[in-house]
Amino acid sequence: MVFGVYRNNHPATAVDHCCHCYFINSNEPNLVVAGGSYLRIFRYVPMQEEGQIKHRLEQVLCYNLFGVVNSMAVAMYPGNRRHSLLLAVGEAQLAVVDYEPSSHTLKTKMLYNYEQDDQRTMFLQQTFLPQVRVDPENRAAAMLIYGSRLVVIPLTKTAKAANESAHQSYVVNLKSLDERVNNVKDFKFLYGYCDPTIVLLYEPLRTWTGRVAVRRDTCAIVAIALNIRDKVHPIIWSQNNLPFDSLYVLAVHKPTGGVLVFAVNSLLYLNQAIPPFGMLLNSLAESITDFPVHKHTGLMLTLDDSQAVMMEDERVFVSLKSGDIYLITLISDGMRSIKRFNWYKAASSVLTSCISMATGNYIFLGSRFGNSILLHYQEKSSVTADILEPLEQRNKRSKVDEDDLDLELFGHKKSKPDIRLSVYEFEVCDSLINFSPITQMTVGETPFLSEEYKSNNYHDLEIVACSGYGKNGALSIFQNSIRPLVNSTFDLPTVHNMWTIFSDNNNFHSYLILAKSDTTLVLHTGEDITEVEESDFATDETTVHVSNLQQYILQVCPSALLLLKDTKLVHKLELTETVQSVSVSDPYGVILFKSGVVKVLTLEKERMTLSDTPSNNITCMTTYIDESGLFSIDPHPSVSNESIPSSANNIESSEIGGGGAVDDEIDEDALLYGDSTVLFEQLKKPSRSHEKSKKEKSKDPGPPMITQFHFPTHWCVLSREDGAMEIRTLPGWELHYFCRNFALSPKVLMNVDEHNTIGNDGIPLVKEICVVGLGWKRQRPHLLTLIDDDLLIYTCFPYNSEGKNDLKVRFSKIQHEVLIKKRKARSNKLLEMDSHPYYTPKIQCFTNISGYSGIFLADDHPYWLFLTTHGALRTHPMYIDGKVTCFAPFHNDNCHHGFLYFSNTDELRVCTLPSNVTYDNHWPAKKITLRATPHYVAYHHDTKTYAVCTSSSSLNPMMPKMQNNLDKDEVPIEEDDVFPYPSLNWYSITLYTRDGWEVIPDSRIDLPKYEKITCMKYMELSGEQMGEQTKGYIVAGTICTMGEEVSARGKIMLFDVMEVVPDPEKPLSGFKFKCLYDKEQKGPVTEVECIMGHIVSAIGQKLYVWSFVNNELVGVAFIDTLIYIHSLAVIKNFILYADITKSLSLLTFDKECKTLSVVSRDFEPMEIYKCDFVVDGQNLGFIVSDSNTNLVIYLYQPEAIESSGGQKLIRKSDIRLGSHVNTFFRTGIRIQDGSILGTTPTSALLHPSEKRHVTWCGTLDGAIGSFLPLSEKRYRRLFMLHNKLVTAVPHIAGLNPKKFRTARMPGRWLMNPHRNILDYQLLTNFLTLSHTERRELAKQIGATPSQILDDLMNIQKAMLIF
After folding, report:
1. Per-residue pLDDT tens for 170-206?
2. Percent of the chain clearing pLDDT 70 (strictly above)
3. Cα 767-769-775 angle, rounded to 5 deg
4. What is the SS3 assignment for 472?
5. Tens digits of per-residue pLDDT, 550-559?
6. What residues form DSSP beta bridges with 794?
7. 478: which strand partners?
8. Is 413 in contact with 401 (CB distance < 8 Å)?
9. Calpha distance 1028→1030 (Å, rounded)
10. DSSP labels for 1245-1313?
11. Of 72, 147, 94, whose CA–CA distance to 354 is shortest?
12. Distance CA 929, CA 348 (A)
């Protein structure tokens, strides 16, 4: 077992970087966010909720990059009307990307690579991440690499380089300017200089807190002017001896200028030729810096892990690590000199990782620990600065008042202008769900599963993960499929299609029409579903289509059209041809006959008429009502060639309306979840001039209204036998769009000349086509089509073509992973269509099912497709009931906003979607808020409960100390009220129910002070009193750390969950959480596991095996290990442990002899995060994640020469993920009968090569991945495809997937990467290729597109576990 594939099942949700820009076009502002390797682009959409207009975020584009975004900025290149995006990836790479309006995607504008050995200097590892910044006036961009190199990228042409490239970059060695410049922490461009000027914050000689007594104030800043034309960079000014804990700098807007230096315990303002000003934020700063600073009484803050951004009018928005939001007002004396900082707490929000200011008084807070939120602020009131002046500063005024002196000398008082400080209130407008960091995961059983699904051959599972931190801590529950709630089930055989119909303006569905092979069944849906005995519906033959047409009901039979009012016939129209399909968009309808002829149905005065059309040879068609205004022959103003507004030329220096403080703290829950209700005005385009006076500035009204009311227009989309697509008007049947190669599934559907057609040879068959408006108010048209066995999804985007009568739109293909290919090969496609004269549409649209609108794909592999107000297309499978033959939305008094479907067993199920799960996510998920940091979660199988370990932080004014008699004691820390006391985490274990995630009464167990839980797992232990039987327990390991003077000790704690008689007043008290064992060990307990009914624990440098007998742990075996074990994995009698620096080791446990033996180990040093086993039939491998974000697989092969007789584990496969993995778990694969491996007798009869396990992992970016072993034959075929796709497909930002997925070694390791692991993300690019490109690429590797699709589908189905 060497080969496998890694799949990123759930993308990263953390937000590390964000920026506001005009990226898509010059009229709409965009928000670009990046987290890990996931890039998303949003636009601001005004939506009315509860009588208020709120701007929300709608996703326009998203990409999984082949590289981790380390820094991001936006710039305006000469001649561009939109911003370009600068992405810093790798160690020293920069990619410049633009939006391509002709294909609705990103194009790579420029690439810069400086990852050369001469640039690395002394660094063999990536010590410094690249940072990219852009000049506020868009004259230049700069990227800091390797801590002492500056890459300068000109953005404007210079007179000297008129005949050269306008954007030729060069590298500046900062040490050549000043030999002290090294270890640069941060840099920014300054405002108000003729040449681009940067300020560098660096630390030439490093120190840390423990050496402050001998070395302090080690940081410095230097301002350097960039003379790009002559490549001369003089130092303008500098400042030395800054506090050693300086973190980052922030440039101050004009006219004040200068820079703010944020340190952990102080805040400084520096500027050229102006005396510096600083302020202490706590009393600790007095003892760690000699820099001249002012005290601020009553203020106790620390700025570590803080984020700050400049607002306007010399205000700074700061988010602290606790989530508190402060507004800082820089109060000057009118001569560009700052004389005071006014701090005021405005609100409390999410723990922030990045901040971006947007137009219209909007602020976006990106987070890695909670949901990212979009805030809107507006001015509430204003106060004078004297009101907020500290009391101590008032008392230090001179005893002789200056005003009295003026009165005595000049006869009048000197007037002083009042400094007014605005007070603001905040409101949450939108949020982006986040599940990072995933620190630990477990598997549990799904609650509330319907009885109809419990008889299936597999356990229905879900993932429970610990995510978030502090007050944003939560449990995240994931499912990769939809599990409906079944209300009732009916046995109705031989039904091939069904429809639900409204009648008499009733909000509920009144009738259910079931079409059989030769009859039609009409059911009334009231309190009960009953058959209608007397009606004018045609029941003696099958039905092709039924729908509402105005206030009537239209029934289409193979030989006639019936128009009914309720159940009474109004008009009947006989047909001379056989109907193939019908599509209705009220008040028009289109009928496609078997001969390929299309006729338009109109209704006038209760009379139906059919109008002939010139179209023939049509294979499928659909009608569409456009409410978005995109389907228009008039040019779209949003994509016209207008110059970019002045507001887009300088995003960072934009005027943001207001700034200041709020005198009352906003409730945290209201700010996090948007409960506050503040009405704000309709938003308009802002003014950005900083030169206007405050009175001349207008209120910044925000992003423009990008959605307007449009009168609905009716269209018909047709597909012809020659593979062309037409879009015509209804009822005029005028041709406005023609795409000649539609059946070949190109990436972009373009309007071309109708006469340029292609032949019929080798053209795939278009079976079905559907155009539907999705999203908010159906403003996002999408085109879905079934071509052969592929589902293609296109999104409509505006594009102003040259044709006068052409639709000003194009369609761009969306990459998805919905595979519906059937296993058996089919013969002639046209004959297959003829064998089903009444084709049942598989693409079914719905408007309101549990509040969601989208598309259901009724097929052997059913899928749900949602597109919510956030604009992201979500595809969720529903494999729980197998094949779905037909589907219909259903809404009545007993089933609100539900749906109906027929299963493969001819059973009609009346269902609803669970309301406690959000489907606006890559996987269906939900979050359980804990308001504390979750560390571990364990599922107790016997009682169906969860044990959750959490911790909460509080300040600790005590210091542990060892007394002379070796007793542990505490002494108080005697400091003032503004001293930042250290924080202490208090750990506890709580028992939760599985069904409602409610806390079981009296189940919380709090640990003593200073004691921390290092591990917690569910174990099935056996003892002498139980014989061969096992019983489930919760086992935890702890460590008690009280400083360097006190030796660390730990405990093993063993808990039992018992069922008891519940208290009638407490219905959840049916379980008791009891501690059976809690005793101190000889060292810290760092990890525990279960092996053959025993407990194996890592204590200090030893590994112990215990037996639980009579509520006591009895030692069975032990072995000496290396340095520090922090990860254990057990399978059968094998123990795999990971050392913090000494890599991986394999042990075996002999139960009879009670001995532990070393089998093999890896002798190369490696910092491992987590380890687990990989099961591939009869082969066993070992997978680890390391500090370099790699996944590495080892094998034990004693017959190999390089293993030294089996003493050394052999490294066989590796791949780089780009994100750290902190947790693993394994599940069996899903086999052909739908069951999970190992859960049914059928799975025991499988060939050993099919008995594989999927190894799942969770990353600190919120992503969920999986590794699946592959057979060598399948791997070789996909490996050739993998190599071809590296160069055959253009990649976003020019990033090389082969380089990104190559394992990164620490330093210059004398070992080549082994690879042997395929990247499923790269393989899915095959699905985006056109029909011709697929066939050509498969031919080059000696395969067929069908074989490749089968391989991809087998991989996908094997991982459909949850």
Report:
1. 999 999 999 899 899 999 999 999 999 999 999 999 9
2. 86
3. 150
4. helix
5. 889 999 999 8
6. 783, 813
7. 463, 925
8. no
9. 7
10. TS-GGG-BEEEEEEETTS-EEEEEE--HHHHHHHHHHHHHHHHHS--GGG--HHHHHSPPPSSS-S---
11. 72
12. 17
Q: What's the whole-number average pLDDT of the chain?
A: 86
For the entire predicted model, the pTM comes to 0.90
**DSSP structure string for 684-739:** -PPP--SSS-TTTPPP---S---------EEEEEEEETTS-EEEEETTT--EEEEE
Hunting for tokens 């006869």 — which residue is that?
Answer: 411
pLDDT for 664 equals 36
Contacts of 210 (CB under 8 A, 6+ apart): none
Helix axes 1272-1288, 1345-1358, angle to 10 degrees: 110
Pairing verdict, β 1317-1319 and 4-10: parallel
Start-end of H helices in 451-574 = 451-454
CA–CA gap between residue 165 and residue 309 (Å, rounded): 34
The pLDDT value recorded for residue 969 is 80
- Whether 1049 and 1083 have beta carbons less than 8 Å apart is answered as yes
Other CB atoms within 10 A of residue 666 CB: 19
CA distance 429 to 441: 31
The type of residue at 878 is M
3-class state of residue 175 by DSSP: helix
How much of the chain exceeds pLDDT 90, in percent? 64
Tokens at 735, concatenated: 């041709």
Q: Give pLDDT tens digits for 225-256.
A: 999 888 899 999 999 999 999 999 999 998 88
Q: Which residue did the predictor score with more confidence, 49 or 16?
A: 16
d(CA 659, CA 664): 15
Q: Do residues 752 and 739 lie in contact, with contact meaning Cβ atoms separated by under 8 Å?
A: yes
Residue 1323 and residue 1347: Cα distance in Å, rounded? 13
Calculate the CA dihedral of residues 927, 931, 932, 937 and round it to 10 degrees.
-30
Q: Which two tokens stand for residue 1004?
A: 């919380």
CB 1166 within 8 A of CB 1188: no
* Secondary-structure breakdown of the chain: helix, strand, coil percentages, each rounded to the nearest 5: 10, 45, 45
The strand ranges marked E within 1041-1111 are: 1051-1059, 1071-1080, 1085-1091, 1094-1099, 1102-1109
Calpha distance 464→438 (Å, rounded): 10
Residue 79 has pLDDT above 90, yes or no: no
Query: What is the pLDDT, as a whole number, of residue 667?
Result: 42
| Rounded Cα distance, 1189 and 1187, in Å | 5
Q: Give the single-character DSSP code of 470.
A: G
- DSSP 8-class letter at 1348: H
Structure tokens at 704: 């423009």
Residue 646 has pLDDT above 50, yes or no: no
Distance from C-alpha of 1305 to C-alpha of 1313, rounded to nearest angstrom: 8
Q: In this model, does residue 583 exceed pLDDT 60?
A: yes
Cα distances (Å, whole numbers) of residue 1188 to 1169, 1218, 1301, 1306, 1316: 10, 8, 12, 7, 18
| pLDDT above 80 (res 779) | yes
pLDDT the model gives residue 668: 40
Residue whose C-alpha is closest to residue 551's, from 592, 504, 515, 595 = 504
For 912-958, write each residue's pLDDT tens digit: 999 999 999 999 999 999 999 999 999 999 999 999 999 999 999 98
The residue type at 1106? W
What's the whole-number mean pLDDT along residues 686-695?
A: 36
Q: What is the mean pLDDT of residues 594-604?
A: 92
Structure tokens, 936: 């571990």
Residue 698 pLDDT > 50: no
Cα–Cα distance, 481 to 465 (Å, whole number): 17
Q: Which residue has the higher pLDDT, 993 or 690?
A: 993
Task: Tell me whether residue 977 is exposed, middle or buried, using C-beta atoms within 10 angstroms of its C-beta: 0 to 12, 13 to 18, 19 or more.
Answer: exposed
